[in-house]
Amino acid sequence: WSLPNAERYALQYADGRQTYITESNRREIKNGSILRLTTSPDQEAERLYSGIQSNNSDVKTDSLKKLASLSQDVTFAQEFINRNGLKQIFYIVEEGNDTGEMLAHTLKAFMELMEHDFVSWETLSATFIKKIVSYVNMNAVDASVQQLSLSILENMVPTSRLLFELVKKEVTLDRLLTHLQVTNAQLQLKAMALLIALLLAATDAERRDMMDYLREKNIRQFIHKNIIHSSEPLGDEMAHYLYVLQSVSLNLCERRMRTSMDPYSQEQRELLQSLRQTAFESESEAPASNFNTERRRSLCAKEFRKLGFTNNSNPAEDLRRAPPGLLALDNMVYFSRHTPNAYSRFVLENSSREDKHECPFARSSIQLTLILCEILHVGEPCSETAQAFYPMFFGQDHFFEELFCICIQLVNKTWKEMRATQEDFDKVLQVVREQITRTLSLKPTSLELFKTRVNALNYSEILKLRQTERLHQEETLAVPVLELRERLKPELLELIRQQRLLHLCEGTLFRKISSRRRQDKLWYCRLSPNHKVLHYGDVEEGVHSPPIESLPEKIPVADMKMLLVGKECPHTKEKSSGKQNKDVLELAFSIVYDVEEYCLNFVAPTRYEFCLWTDGLSVLLGREMTSERTQTDLDVLLSMELKLRLLDLENISIPDTPPPVPKPPSNLNFCYDFSHAEP
């Protein structure tokens, strides 16, 4: 258009993210995209750089507001940072006394600029950090400012040990607990995010101290009452933070779990002896001093054998295996001290049974502790995306030990129901593992409820469930049935294809995950009803099914070249291999499209969504559906279809080969002759 001073202008998307068009992204412009002519990023950066230094507070506030929205664009952010714009933002925060709208825009702009990773968090000045900390610690500050301040600190903590120590020192746990108790859900969430970031960045000793302090302050009771059982439904992010808190708490058991018993430790030997004394003190009231050493030793060995230790002369040997190590001893001692009646009943009941039918308490406890550690993932690192926490964990102090007390009594109950002998030990513990996992999958809200349900799920119930599942899995393997299966497959695969495409038309909400942290940014993607175009765009939190018109970006299906999953995706390659996240790898997929081979990168919210999307995209590309979900869906549909078709053949054995067709008869005189029919 021969504009004079053309370098002062730029094109920008008119809707959506309003990104500037540059040489590097110009090829991504789609037909139908609306662009507008605007001042170039460097001119805009210059104007806003001057605007935020203005003495007129209205001009300054408007400039900061504009800056907060434009800073999302990488080109503008680069120009603004090159002009030393961050220094000016630091100055506004460090020198200003404003705690309202202007400060909120300034902090928002700072967050967006730092998001692009041009500048290291470690370059921040101590004055600036202390100012941010002061907004968290002050009471008379706007909630939006406190939210942004908490977010800034949350991003800062994982980047360096120095920043972690500074934030930990300045923002006390008491202060974070105060923020957790507000009614503003967003502020509560950001406070929880910072608390979790601090816990994850701490050393083992620091983490232990922090958790002890939080326990003193009754954080568990508060979470149980005000967050899990609040009137508002629990958001995904809060569920993730509760999962991390549960995981960190349970991992405090890891040290004891990985420590073998030391037979020379006086303290550990006393704990072991206390188990024997609690169980048999009434029997051994006769003064032991009258016995000689040999007699006393044989009596102790006999009692340790009754307790169920395999090595009764030196029971410490049984606890040398780690895991479960000393954690098993801790659990046994907790059970004997907190439920002495149940403990005595367990031991005495089994010591009076026949030798081969007695349930060994110590051996069962050691194995059960190991099973509980595996089920509750003790000693495993936290997942970055999981949200599976147990509500009952926050409803109980000493959760692990209390759970053990319920389950060790379950072992005894199941042992009796199975009429087990010593040879059946592993079989019994396998059933107990199944009882525990099945009950935990029901997400009981309290340990009492868990106890009721796990005891109701007795051995005969487990057998019934196993039988039902086996029948579901079993298919008749006769040759004619297998042939029928093959004949039904194409029709059912077509049905699955249609379902996948319908799911893509409904669309899914995806979360953007950066290399540094879980992000709040969401985007939505859906297929047009005619299956010709893929529409996508950013959406706000709380939007569940935006109309296609509101999604500005589009990719014609005809332009799609291939589908990449897992490690092949560009957005998983970008991350440093050291921090490669297993969860993200399992849920990542990308579409390569256009001649230039651009990529649209996804991280599915769940494995189910991942399977549906990768299948649907494979159908659009004319490829086979390869996800594990396709196989399970096909198996379910085939099983149902076969059962319906074979209903009339119930209890009839189907031969492998069809019965032979008999020879034609020598004459056909037995046929009815219609020509002589009566009039």
UniProtKB/TrEMBL annotation:
GO biological process annotation, one example: apoptotic process
SUPFAM superfamilies: ARM repeat (SSF48371), PH domain-like (SSF50729)
Keywords: Apoptosis, Phagocytosis, SH3-binding
CDD domains (alphabetical): PH_ELMO1_CED-12
Example GO molecular function: SH3 domain binding
Metal-binding keyword on record: no
Domain ELMO: 267-440
Pfam families assigned: ELMO_ARM (PF11841), ELMO_CED12 (PF04727), PH_12 (PF16457)
Gene3D superfamilies per the UniProt record, alphabetical: 6.10.250.810, Leucine-rich Repeat Variant (1.25.10.10), Pleckstrin-homology domain (PH domain)/Phosphotyrosine-binding domain (PTB) (2.30.29.30)
Keyword Metal-binding applies: no
PANTHER family attached to this UniProt entry: ENGULFMENT AND CELL MOTILITY (PTHR12771), ENGULFMENT AND CELL MOTILITY PROTEIN 3 (PTHR12771:SF16)
Function summary: Involved in cytoskeletal rearrangements required for phagocytosis of apoptotic cells and cell motility. Acts in association with DOCK1 and CRK. Was initially proposed to be required in complex with DOCK1 to activate Rac Rho small GTPases. May enhance the guanine nucleotide exchange factor (GEF) activity of DOCK1.
Protein name: ELMO3 protein
UniProt source species: Corythaixoides concolor
Gene designation: Elmo3
